[in-house]
Amino acid sequence: MYRVKEAFYTLQGEGAQAGRAAVFCRFSKCNLWTGREKDRALAVCDFCDTDFVGTDGQNGGRFETADALADHIRSLWPDAPGRPYVVCTGGEPLLQLDEPLIEAFHRRGFEVGVETNGTLPAPQGIDWLCVSPKADAPVVIERCDELKLVYPQPKAMPERFQNLAASHYFLSPMASPSAPESGPDAIKQSNTRKATNYCLANPRWRLTLQMHKIIGID
């Protein structure tokens, strides 16, 4: 049984695949937070702004088999040239994503991307692995295509991940870069400046902004 909060066709908004068309498959559940506000103070990832509770979102549901879910995701891809791409996210997708589902995606022509917090081993067959560590949660994945770190996190500063082998290293400011210079959202703009300054001082890291929020798409 696979439980999916929502699934939708859009453009990848950040990181090395930014601008690429993809079907996002958001799995329910996370191992760092229940997703319920009453538990936020106890969450490892207490800044999370994603709704991953239940299966009641757009194109969400429960799927008994890998083929059933893969068919559902394929139905969201347009009949047009270009290799289909699915991004498995959450919540924490590696609580549910397994090799049978990856193989089912591959049989339908999909390239499979995953966005994970890195606390669980990754199954074989993933085509693009993005690790986004959270706070002091242990990271068990040692190699990935993309390390994308929300910045700043006092317990997860970039220096902690110098030995995690990645093809790309990104800092993602904890909020939108369009926030005003003064008022209650000023700290969000400040985080963008802090991430920018860190990348300038440490050019191994690149700045990534949430393009989907800036241009107003899902």
Strand content: 25-35%
The total tally of domains equals 1
Report, as a whole number of angstroms, the end-to-end distance: 26 Å
Structural class: alpha/beta
**Overall mean confidence score, pLDDT:** 93
Annotation, overall tally of beta strands: 9
Please write the CATH class name. Answer: Alpha Beta
Relative helix content: 10-25%
CATH level-4 homologous superfamily? Aldolase class I
Question: For the report, how would you describe the main beta sheet?
Answer: 9 strands, mixed
Gross geometry = globular
Please provide the ordered H/E string of secondary-structure elements.
Answer: EEEHEHEEEEHEH
The number of helical runs is 4
CATH topology: TIM Barrel
**Rg, please?**
17 Å
User: So, CATH architecture?
Assistant: Alpha-Beta Barrel
Unreliable spans are 176-181
**Order of strands in the sheet with most strands:** 3-1-2-4-5-6-7-8-9
Notes on the protein architecture:
This protein is of the alpha/beta class and 218 residues long. It has one domain (2-215): Alpha-Beta Barrel (TIM Barrel). Helix content is 18%, strand content 25%. The chain has four helices and nine strands. The chain has a nine-stranded mixed β-sheet with strand order 3-1-2-4-5-6-7-8-9. Strand 4, helix 2 (99-107) and strand 5 (111-116) form a beta-alpha-beta unit. Helix 1 crosses helix 2 (99-107). It is globular. The chain starts with a strand and ends with a helix. Residues 176-181 have low confidence and may be disordered.
